Amino acid sequence: MSTSALRVVHETGPGPDLEAAEAAAANLLTALGISLDSESLRGTPGRMARAYAELFTPRSFDLTTFPNDEGYDELVLARGIPVRSVCEHHLLPFVGVAHVGYLPGERILGLSKLARIVEHFACRPQVQERLTKQVADWLDEQLQPRGVGVVIEAEHSCMTLRGVQAVGSSTVTSTLLGTLREDARSRQEFFALTGING
Asked: Catalytic pick from 99, 123, 156, 189?
């Protein structure tokens, strides 16, 4: 069976300057009135720098597709894909799950790649609305399916830990393309399988 793979890498550019990030983290903590003199806090700026570098660096992967030899034409859906990203407005994390589905065209996708694509776009300062659309648009462009659906449910610590402090609240965003947007029955099936009332 022949395969087609596209190497997916993070945008090119300079890698993280951990030394500068550590110095900036130390300056930030000091400016907020946090003393770094104790043994437990002395290494915190370095840990912060490495943690944010990890959050903002997705792993490269091969987008592996296979011919849809059997002509499978029903929905393929991966539910409950873990999502972790960082709100670009406060640099506080948001976490949740993504449900990603598509109606195959000529090719089908290796299932683990749905999670990889979510991670790829989540590993940067983000807003949930953009993240949802980026995953859907990218799948639509690369796979050329008959339809794509993406739903993300997430809790934003910028909403739960500060400001309004709406503990327990979650945000749901969706993007539907192709048949999943245009056909009411296909749309309803997608939302039913994700557990979302569409």
From this structure: 156
Tell me, what's the pLDDT at 63?
A: 84
Residue 46 has a pLDDT of 97
For residue 47 the two structure tokens come to 């840990």
Using only C-alpha atoms, the chain has a radius of gyration, in whole angstroms, of: 20
Q: Which of 89, 129, 182, 188 is catalytic?
A: 89
In whole angstroms, give the CA distance from residue 14 to residue 12.
7
| 148, burial (CB in 10 Å: exposed 0-12, middle 13-18, buried 19+) | buried
Q: What is the pLDDT of residue 158?
A: 85
10 included as an active-site residue? no
Given a cut of 70, the residues of the chain with pLDDT beneath it are: 1-13, 197-198
99 has catalytic annotation: no
Determine the length of the chain. Answer: 198
68-101 burial string, b = 16+ CB within 10 Å, else e? eeeeeeebebbeebebebbbeebeebbebbbbbb
Pairwise CA distance, residues 146 & 140, whole Å: 8
Largest alpha-carbon pair distance within the chain? 65
Active-site hit among 22, 126, 128, 153: 128
DSSP state of 187: H
Query: What per-residue confidence (pLDDT) applies to 198?
Result: 53
pTM above 0.85, yes or no: yes
Report how far residue 86's alpha carbon sits from residue 28's, in angstroms, rounded to the nearest whole number. Answer: 18
Answer yes or no: 88 catalytic: yes
Q: State the pLDDT at residue 50.
A: 96
